[in-house]
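Lecture 7, part 2: worked example. A protein chain together with pyridine-2,4-dicarboxylic acid.
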Amino acid sequence: MEFAELEPELQQWMRSAIKGGQSRATVVDALLKAGYQPAIANAVDQCFHAYPPTDAVPGTDAKRNPVAVSSQQNPDTRFRAFSAGTSKIKLGAQQVDVHFAIRHPNIVLFANFLAEWECEALVEMSRPHLTPSRVVNAQHGEFELKPSRTSGGTHFARGETPLIADIEARIARLLGVPDTHGEPLQILHYPVSAEYRPHYDFFDPEKPGNQEVLASGGQRIGTLIMYLSDVESGGATVFPNIGLEVQPQKGAALFFSYMSEHGKLDFQSLHGGSPVLAGEKWIATKWLRTAEYPMYRA
Ligand code: PD2
Ligand code: ZN
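Predicted complex, written out as structure tokens:
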């Protein structure tokens, strides 16, 4: 079966799956499950040849990522490398400091990423629009309410307001990934007792219910959690496999990544948001993908 003879929609799906970092086996498997004949594998090979997945590696475009190219790239991830003690990374009006940096898994805590007024503006924009947070069911792909995630949330399309566009440009400059690789900005609110139990932010590529989310923008490769409030008690972001707990601090941002340039997923990135015991917790989360994330998913 020839790639050129396939329906344009199927060609497009195949190209974005490959560009998004999906392996040959995963793409072929998804097509077989969808009812295509084994000869489809030939078309997949032709597509791999014509649109190699290396096109998807972000952070290498000098014009779009001036900060990234002037600094060291982390050999284990698709993002810049950061060292503890680096201070005053100038990003527009904000001067960001590296509070700590861990290599395996790759986790960096930045201080001063957001100004206080930006945190407060994001909270006020979101407060009237909160709905219960959902998780994607890896078996059938539906978004479901689950006791494992009890925050409320809302989201904003890329560049939806000047403030959001500015923050997204800051994230792109800091991490070295184009803003087009970002999902819509999620704003999450945790009242007392709300939590997000330990999970991975990447999608298991073997699970049928994840194929649709993977087809738009490819795999998730990194997460930036921006703390919009302090929390009186509880509410830490925890990494149970490495015994790390990060207490929210208004304006700080926690970055972690979990997919190498070769597509290897890091299972040490298991993380959660522990229950809020007193006060409330507000965060903004930006999830980053291997490839461009379509605007219409906002
Ligand atoms: O609220 C958190 O600390 C948290 C924990 C785990 C947020 C996320 N995951 C997330 O937004 O993915
Ligand atoms: Zn998470």
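The helical segments are 8-19, 24-33, 40-50, 66-69, 116-126, 162-175, 211-215. The radius of gyration is 19 Å. Keep this in mind for problem set question 3.
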